[in-house]
Amino acid sequence: MRRPLLGMAALLSTIVLLGTAYSSLNSLALDTSLYPSPSRTAYFAQKTNIFNQYFVKLAWLHTSLIYLPHLFTTPSPSRFIPHLWSYVISTAFWAIFTTWFFGRGLGDRIIELSGGKCVIALPTNWGLDRDKVQEMMALVPASVGASLLSSTLDATTSSLAETANSAPHDDNLYLAVPSSFCTSQAALTPKSAPDIFSILSALPFPQSVYNDSERPTLAIPRPRWFRGHDISGHVFILVLSSLLLTRRLLPTWRRWMGAGDVVAADKGRAQSPVLQLGNEQLRARIHAVATVLGTALLVLWLWMTLMTATYFHNPQEKISGLVLGLTTAYLVDVFTPSISISPSETSAVPRTKSSLSPTLDENGARRGDDGLVQSSEADAAGTEGGKDKVE
Q1: d(Cα 21, Cα 24) in Å, to the nearest integer?
Q2: What is the DSSP letter of 224?
Q3: Which of 78, 277, 290, 307 could covalently link to 345 via disulfide, CB atoms 3.0 to 4.6 Å apart?
Q4: Strand, helix or coil at 279?
Q5: d(CA 307, CA 45)
Q6: Domain end (from 291, 306, 335)
Q7: Higher pLDDT, 302 or 391
Q8: Whole-angstrom distance, CA of residue 383 vs CA of residue 373
């Protein structure tokens, strides 16, 4: 990993470690197994805060909306292919963790393999008695059918009792359901899960509260993972997005500060997809806006990384999210080509007269021009004179 990216990786690691330490010392972190989430006074401790709902949960979308316009308006063609590869590889790793890994996403598989269960919480306003529910569940195989239960519902009397008794700080009853419901995140309906609703409709609602015609409607929350090792997906995606944006924006930052690379100008060659349209002013404006917005987004990602480390997940889950994000960024760096694959693109690195004289272009030497990179007409003349003497 290159030095600037190592600096950003160190900053992200420091943020996560400090946030985790502060959270542990002050008991601020939320156990993501709690269902429903308790209300908390700190704005960023609430899952419903606007930055979490509309930015972090859509982090890869926002990162892409900045990254791609900035990439396609780059004035440096030699950087286009490597940075495009970085985005494609990063997107593939993001999809593997969140969406698909030979079926379910890697994150879901880790939760289940570490003992997590997909559950639904039976709403407390149903007024259910814990003991009576457990007694009824013992009768489910006889009333519903053992084969039907085993093929469609991963809940048994013991799993229901264990889940209910292990739920911290709440009085919900939890019903284990097939893990596919957590993977799809689809709402349970009588049509999608008829056997589950058959069990729910037979629950012993207290007659003193409800008559048969007044039973509450079976509007239940979406299934969620309970327990297991829930790697902090937010830390993972924020770390990966921050490093990807840093890689993309760094050359522009350097140019704006006057310490960056000098882009070689070849008048006969289009330098970016937008430049092919012949509108340099449009390209420059889009590139500048994307840089400003990307910088602001990067600052937001760093802040939300700190908020996630402070208010959510246990220390192990946050650290594993950090390690996964850093490892993914390292693999992206390894698999990304470091130079342009186009032989017509010139170097973007400024060269001085003093540095040119000993520089050899091996490909040029094979062509028969000795590979010497000329810095001036005088140097060229001197070289030609030397060649005449040798010959």
Answers
A1: 5
A2: E
A3: 78
A4: coil
A5: 7
A6: 335
A7: 302
A8: 10
Specify the pTM. 0.70
pLDDT tens sequence across 18-40: 999 999 898 887 766 655 555 66
> Could you tell me which residues come within 8 angstroms of residue 99 by beta carbon, excluding any fewer than 6 positions away?
105
Distance of CA 178 to the CA centre of its chain: 26
Contact assessment for residue 93 and residue 240, using Cβ atoms and an 8 Å cutoff: yes
Whether 344 is in a domain gets the answer no
Number of domains in the chain: 3
Three-class secondary structure of residue 174 per DSSP: strand
Are residues 62 and 103 both part of a single domain?
Answer: yes
Note whether residue 150 is domain-resident. Answer: yes
Cα of 370 vs its chain's centroid, Å: 49
Of the CA atoms within 13 Å of residue 56, those in its CB half-sphere come to: 26
Strand order of the sheet with strand 117-122? 173-176, 117-122, 224-226
Alpha carbons 310 and 307: distance in angstroms, whole number: 5
Residues 95 and 238 in one domain: yes
Same domain, 331 and 307: yes
What are the CA-CA distances from residue 151 to residues 8, 137, 145 (Å)?
49, 16, 10
Identify the residue whose tokens are 């069990």.
199
Q: Which two tokens stand for residue 135?
A: 């007694």
29, 22 in Cβ contact below 8 A?
Answer: no
Residue-range definition of the domain harbouring residue 172: 117-226
Please tell me the distance from the alpha carbon of residue 234 to that of residue 301, in angstroms, as a whole number. Answer: 10
Structure-block tokens of residue 33: 């197994």
Residues 104 and 234 in one domain: yes
**pLDDT per residue as tens digits for the range 242-276:** 999 999 999 899 888 875 544 443 343 445 555 55
Task: Kindly state whether residues 145 and 175 are assigned to the same domain.
Answer: yes
Buried b / exposed e over 222-237, threshold 16 CB at 10 Å, is ebbbbbbbbbbbbbbb
Q: Are residues 32 and 73 in the same domain?
A: yes
Q: Are 129 and 135 in contact (CB under 8 A)?
A: no
